[in-house]
Amino acid sequence: MTRVWRRVLDRELPVAVHAEGAWIETADGSRYLDGAGGAIVVNVGHGDGALLEAMRTQAERVQYVHGTMFTTAALETYAEEVADLLPIDQARIYPVSGGSEAVETALKMARAYHLARADDDRSVVLARETSYHGNTLGALDASGKLPLRAPYAPWLGRAVHVPAAYPYRVPMSGKQHADATERAIEEIGASRVAAFIAEPVAGATLGAAVPDDDYWPAVVEVCNRHGVLVIADEVMTGFGRTGRWFGVDHWGVRPDLLTAGKGSTSGYVPFGFAAASGQVFETIASAGGFVHGFTWSHNGLGAAVGSAVIARLRDGLLDRCVVLGERLRKELDAAIGEDPNVGEIRGLGLMIGIELVADRRSKRPFARADHVTERVVAAARDQGLLVYSSTGHVDGTDGDLVMLGPPFCMTDEDVATLAERTAIAVRSTT
What is the pLDDT of residue 389? Predict the structure, then answer.
């Protein structure tokens, strides 16, 4: 009997004993191709020597100091490096331990900014339907996926949700989305809306749904005009996952705030950050500072690994993501692109989603009772392939998605294996 409260309670989990590149080995000798990068986390790859050396070197220098008492060279260096990459003017970063903390921090920054400007009524957060921003209460309240919210509904309800950027099932133009956002702002009262938060490319809840090119510029213009801060949730899309440093780089917009996690350290160390523009930072600082903090924020170990990740991405892995993403999409299209139960294969870079449907023409989803996603995941696992899954995106109950988000260090052979095994899993269970 295990004393661990595992995240999976309906089956025994294999014991991972070694991971390298795009592969994970278990105690019984099995090998798994990590087609999901864990939870779309492992961008650089497992067992990377440069990241391991950065961890060791920093741990030998300074293990832990509190962020109110000390800074570290690793943190100061990282902040300079990442600020130059961020699509934010004069960025200041607030390091934390992961994506949920980053979102919680950004939401509080938005509130603190408006308080500093004496706009005390601005407290409402706008987000999108069927979205996910984390599991802390503020982040979950912004999240729009109903099954995740349902158990905690009595504690939620402050955020307001507008339509998802989901062209496959929500065929709205950028102008229509902007109009819907503006209507929501006007209905709430522009003087009450603090921020709008969204993923540049929808992640786990909508399986790499890419908005139309006119979406982000149009929505950002509305928010700017009404004094609503724009928060880009780059926890999944950041650090090269979509083939650019950050997802919003595809559309040339510059948010006021940005959140990062997952790929910031490629999963090697719990780490993330909320970044604010210089103007947001100066406004908050001028009013006496930011009432917020975590015990393990501003840690040098995460920052040291983060610097190593940036170096590895600059050293060809970011370009490799683009090449491999195009190759994988092409091979998937050839293998299952015309499958009657594959509604759409979509995504950017190595963030790829496969939407599974009962009827391709009408886009009718499978009934949740069919457990299609679970069967595809199990069939893939039986072949030694790990994929990421999501359900319930159509109406809160029905809907089946599979996501691929492998490490950027995959070999060409790994890509072929990933496409082949994914196709077999899909065809065998739909």
Answer: 96
CA distance 258 to 236: 12
d(CA 117, CA 84): 27
Q: What is the pLDDT of residue 430?
A: 76
Q: What is the 3-state secondary structure (H, E, C) of 68-123?
A: CCCCCHHHHHHHHHHHCCCCCCCCEEEEECCHHHHHHHHHHHHHHHHHHCCCCCCC
How many Cα atoms occupy the beta-carbon half-sphere of 377 within 13 Å? Answer: 15
Q: Which residues contact 59 (CB under 8 A, 6 or more apart)?
A: 301
The model's pLDDT over 261-274, given as tens digits with 9 standing for 90+, comes to: 999 999 999 999 99
In this structure, are strands 385-386 and 31-34 parallel, antiparallel, or unpaired? parallel
Q: Are strands 124-128 and 388-391 parallel, antiparallel or unpaired?
A: unpaired
CA 324 to CA 418: how far, in whole Å? Answer: 11
The DSSP symbol for 11 reads: S
pLDDT band at 335 (very low <50, low <70, confident <90, very high): very high
Residues 74-110 pLDDT 10s: 999 999 999 999 999 999 999 999 999 999 999 999 9
Task: Give the Cα separation of 423 and 430 in Å (integer).
Answer: 11
Residue 233, Cα to own-chain centre: how many angstroms? 7
Alpha carbon distances (Å) from 186 to 41, 122, 162, 196, 228: 38, 13, 13, 14, 12
Rounded CA separation 190/245 (Å)? 32
Query: Which pLDDT band holds residue 429 (cuts at 50, 70, 90)?
Result: confident
* Nearest partner of 33 among 401, 396, 426, 422, judged by Cα: 422
Q: How confident is the model at residue 1 (pLDDT cuts 50, 70, 90)?
A: confident
Separation CA 42–CA 239 (nearest Å): 10
